[in-house]
Amino acid sequence: MFKKGSSVLCQRKSVRYAYMKSQSHLFPIILMARLLRVSVSRFYDWLKRGMSKRSIQRNQQTILVKIAHEETKQSYGYVRLTKHLQAQGIKISTYAVRQIKKSNQLYCKRHKRFKRTTNSDHNRSIYDNLLKQQFSMTKPNLAWSSDITYIWTAEGWLYLAAVKDLYTKQVVGYSLNERMTAKLVCDALNMAIRNQKPAKDLIVHSDRGSQYCSNEYRNLLEKFDFQGSMSKKGDCFDNAPIES
After folding, report:
1. pLDDT score at 50
2. Strand 171-177's sheet: what is its strand order?
3. pLDDT band for position 17 (cuts 50, 70, 90)
4. pTM of the predicted model as reported, rounded to 2 decimal places
5. Tens of pLDDT along 112-151?
6. What residues have CB less than 8 Å from 141, skipping those under 6 apart?
7. Which domain does 74 fall in, by range?
8. Residue 66, SS3?
9. Can you list the positions of beta strands (E) in the chain?
10. Is residue 116 part of a domain?
11. How does pLDDT run across 178-211, given as a tens digit for each residue?
């Protein structure tokens, strides 16, 4: 969601509100409002006012086209992008895709900006993979998954660390910062701890990024008697619940 949500950041507020509504069952409204730079109160005012069916349809189509534009690495023209969407069962015309791409300045690029969020090339100690892709839990606060993502803005990269409960599928803690440091992931975990107050032996899973292997992060896990768990090197499926 976080990577896809960044594509909506520069859209008009009605589009951002529509995106927040579509993702409200997965992520906190306050978090999305902060990321998308809108007011929470005005979002709820927008919900109360309602929209015409045509406006709702166009906003939904705009979101889908924006997401597809990012998924295809900004390399598809409107004809090819229409076929890509239709292949997923989405009913949308070539004309609509062309108009949305034009009005939202969704131009094709040969190279997409990329920012690395994981540095696993280090000699620090790592945790064993306790989950082994077994993500089904019987109750909340048995296992959490954590990761770092990013949003590109005109001022540069904005990093977001998030913690997700594998049972509720909800984000229980997050942190935003201009720098990708150990403090970023520790702040996200501390928020989750304050919100959920989990018992000891909680499994906290992540990739092998240097932030998660830092002394600060390891000390935090030990302080609360949590169990650290890490993916195999280069295997995104080991942390799929929060990578998706």
Report:
1. 64
2. 171-177, 156-165, 143-153, 203-206, 227-230
3. confident
4. 0.52
5. 454 555 555 556 788 989 988 888 899 999 999 999 888 7
6. 165, 167, 196, 198, 199, 202
7. 2-103
8. helix
9. 143-153, 156-165, 171-177, 203-206, 227-230
10. no
11. 888 999 999 999 999 999 999 999 999 998 888 9
> Is residue 44 one of the residues assigned to a domain?
yes
Residue type for position 198: P
Sequence length of the chain is 244
Here the tokens at position 239 are 């942390």
The DSSP result for 135-181, as a single string, is: ---SSTTSEEEEEEEEEEETTEEEEEEEEEETTT--EEEEEEESS--
How many whole angstroms separate alpha carbon 164 and alpha carbon 26? Answer: 10
Share of the chain above pLDDT 70, in %: 86
- Residue at token pair 């927008």: 46
Cβ pair 194, 223 in contact under 8 A: no
Count of domains for the chain: 2
Region 209-238: what's the mean pLDDT? 89
Residue with tokens 């859209």: 11
Q: Where a domain ends, among 55, 71, 103?
A: 103
Round to the nearest angstrom and report the end-to-end CA distance of the chain.
Answer: 7
